[in-house]
From TrEMBL:
<keyword id="KW-0472">Membrane</keyword>
<dbReference type="GO" id="GO:0016020">
    <property type="term" value="C:membrane"/>
</dbReference>
<dbReference type="Pfam" id="PF13962">
    <property type="entry name" value="PGG"/>
</dbReference>
<feature type="transmembrane region" description="Helical">
    <location>
        <begin position="170"/>
        <end position="188"/>
    </location>
</feature>
<dbReference type="InterPro" id="IPR026961">
    <property type="entry name" value="PGG_dom"/>
</dbReference>
<protein>
    <recommendedName>
        <fullName>PGG domain-containing protein</fullName>
    </recommendedName>
</protein>
<dbReference type="InterPro" id="IPR036770">
    <property type="entry name" value="Ankyrin_rpt-contain_sf"/>
</dbReference>
<keyword id="KW-1133">Transmembrane helix</keyword>
<feature type="transmembrane region" description="Helical">
    <location>
        <begin position="249"/>
        <end position="272"/>
    </location>
</feature>
<feature type="domain" description="PGG">
    <location>
        <begin position="161"/>
        <end position="272"/>
    </location>
</feature>
<feature type="transmembrane region" description="Helical">
    <location>
        <begin position="278"/>
        <end position="297"/>
    </location>
</feature>
<feature type="transmembrane region" description="Helical">
    <location>
        <begin position="208"/>
        <end position="228"/>
    </location>
</feature>
<keyword id="KW-0812">Transmembrane</keyword>
Length: 324
């Protein structure tokens, strides 16, 4: 097929639906297909979509197909492609500011992740275009930044609600646990020695482990509560790129870390109260550990997803091997 393209005219390519195939493949992310065609016919890189006048790389940005967009990095005429506009005066940075319902979305659920991903896309495309394109206006008078804000108003509201619900789901149980554990910390197990007024189990290693786990838990749980408290609903679009995810990561990390000393505290407390009767202690610990592990697993999954979304490498690698 590629050999036939080399000796075909524009009319033959259009009649043979080659242009349509290229744009469909671009929107679907079929990088092997478009690479093979462009390698055989480099002029097809500048092909324009019917009615919209958009080139394939503009469609790749609009549909969030980074595998295809990264091919632009080693193309000799990338400056002319980046400077192209569609029928409404939108350049390639305007494409990054738009939202396309059928575009490939972030695989991580949650409106905040989708907002973060769109910000990452906009930032990446902005870093390779000329300064004149950053302030260029389309036919409606929108710069890329203005268009981004206008098109993401609904997603910003959804992201704020998602952040609010997530922080509430973590804050409420953390507050309850902190209250309970604080009460446990100031309640001396075994009472005080009447002669010295010191705890009876003061020199017991289990009791020292109990107090140490209490301290670790209260510090980590309180840290998570303070961090979640700083997250407000009045956030700008840019906050979803680094600031809000960073706070969420710190809050979730502290909350998850607090679960381990909480379980240690519970186990040592039972061991002291029941005087080492393992046949009673072990079944109780197993029963209590079930829901705690489920809660921790859910938060760990969210934490890892947020870390991957925030600190992963760039969207596309600019060190692309020559393909033409």
């Amino acid at each position: 097929m590629c050999q036939e393209f080399q000796c075909s005219s524009d009319k033959q390519l259009e009649k043979g639906l080659v242009y349509e195939a290229i744009f469909k493949a671009t929107k679907k992310g079929m990088v092997e297909f478009v690479t093979a065609i462009w390698s055989a016919c480099p002029e097809l890189v500048s092909a324009e979509e019917e009615f919209t006048w958009r080139n394939p790389f503009m469609c790749a940005v609009l549909y969030r197909q980074y595998e295809i967009f990264r091919l632009l990095c080693c193309f000799s005429l990338k400056d002319s492609i980046l400077a192209a506009t569609d029928d409404e005066g939108n350049n390639i940075l305007h494409m990054a500011a738009m939202t396309e319902p059928s575009a490939r979305r972030n695989t991580i659920p949650g409106a905040a992740f989708h907002m973060q991903r769109d910000l990452q896309w906009f930032k990446e495309v902005k870093s390779i275009v000329s300064p004149s394109l950053i302030e260029a206006e389309n036919d409606d008078g929108f710069t890329p930044q203005d268009l981004f804000v206008e098109n993401h108003k609904g997603l910003v509201d959804q992201a704020k609600n998602w952040i609010k619900e997530t922080t509430s789901s973590c804050t409420v149980p953390a507050i309850l646990i902190v209250i309970i554990m604080f009460a446990a910390a100031i309640t001396v197990r075994g009472g005080d020695n009447q002669n010295t007024s010191l705890p009876v189990y003061l020199k017991d290693k289990v009791f020292m482990l109990f107090m140490l786990s209490n301290a670790l838990f209260l510090v980590s749980a309180t840290t998570s509560l303070l961090v979640f408290h700083t997250i407000t609903s009045r956030n700008l679009e840019e906050d979803f790129l680094i600031s809000l995810p960073h706070k969420m990561i710190i809050g979730l990390s502290s909350l998850i870390f607090s679960i381990a000393p909480m379980m240690v505290n519970f186990c040592t407390s039972l061991s002291i109260i029941l005087d080492g009767n393992l046949w009673v202690v072990i079944p109780i610990i197993c029963l209590v550990a079930g829901p705690v592990i489920l809660f921790a697993w859910k938060q760990v999954h969210l934490l890892l997803a947020m870390v991957a979304s925030t600190y992963r490498p760039r969207i596309f690698d600019r060190n692309v091997k020559p393909w033409m």
